[in-house]
Amino acid sequence: MAKSKSFLQNLIKSFKFGYCNEGHKEEDLERIAAQEQKIFPFQTLVAATKDFHPNHKLGEGGFGPVYKGKLDDGREIAVKKLSHNSRQGKREFMNEAKLLARVQHRNVVNLLGYCVHDVEKLLVYEYVSNESLDKLLFKSNRRESLEWKRRFDIITGTARGLLYLHEDSHNCIIHRDIKASNILLDDKWVPKIADFGMARLFPEDETHVNTRVAGTNGYMAPEYVMHGHLSVKADVFSFGVLILELISSQRNSAFNLRVDAQNLLDWAYKLYKKGRSLEIMDPSLASSAATEQVAMCIQIGLLCTQGDPQLRPIMRRVVVMLSKKPGNMEEPTRPGLPGSRYRRTRKSAALSSTAGTSGESDSHTFDSSSYTSASATISATPRSDPHGKRPMQC
Prior knowledge:
protein kinase activity; 2 domains; five-stranded antiparallel sheet; Transferase(Phosphotransferase), domain 1; Phosphorylase Kinase, domain 1; kinase; ATP binding; two-stranded antiparallel sheet; 11 strands
């Protein structure tokens, strides 16, 4: 009990000083592993991955490569191996180790353990067999496996995972990079939120924190992009984008339909106001979709992506809405768009603010990839970056 309390205090201490503070950015991984009693011998992982054979490689991100392996007891695992020369990856790697150490939920990828061997540092996860959502959703030859019920289950499962992180875990955790490539699907198509390299602990009794901007093009809330104001409502915004992408099979960041709209959110909102919201639905869903349920999810997606963060629902409210039959819900206001400013309503002006109008961030975004894929990012200015990635400077 004392060890758990000490471990939690260390997590909170790390959050208070910030992960980019050179003096406090790391906990010793070996000590974390010992405290949590999740130690894997290095030779066990060498044997499981066939000495980290290229044929077992699942992907690679800023941290380094990830390999598929199989333990002697038959369990399949994914092993994240830190690259020796990756400074940015080291920060994310240590951050993920700290935050996932005590997280246990059906809709969050399970960290099985750690390994420290000389200069080698590794994290060991459950293996998730159906890869990441984006590999299925945005490829026309594979999206047929995602009929409507399966997509709705992914929406509800992801919502429950976010609710757990925001309200039911040991501390409030803001993921900061909810997107299709960070939703993994197991053999039963259960969604699991992955990649906590950029996640942050959130202090109690605060409406928001100011932080350098880190996230992925198309998923970041406007108050976060423009001012670095981070709250749980930033995750809610990203989740709303994910809902609309699941329904339309269109990437918000690469929206190129020949319609009068800036992006997917703008298109969905304009059609919703005309009573034609179902027109954003992927035509391949026509035979399997429950139209009332689809319409409800579109409305929820628009509520989650409203420009004013005070008007966005918290995840508990979202889970409640998804669990009920379609009925009366609030009317969504205009969605937040990169570089746009929202007009505060009288109702929300009376509440404590989660987004201000000062402190313009000069930081760049960083796209942390899950262990299956990576996506392009933009700078924290309203203009998109045609060259893709720009690493966040700490």
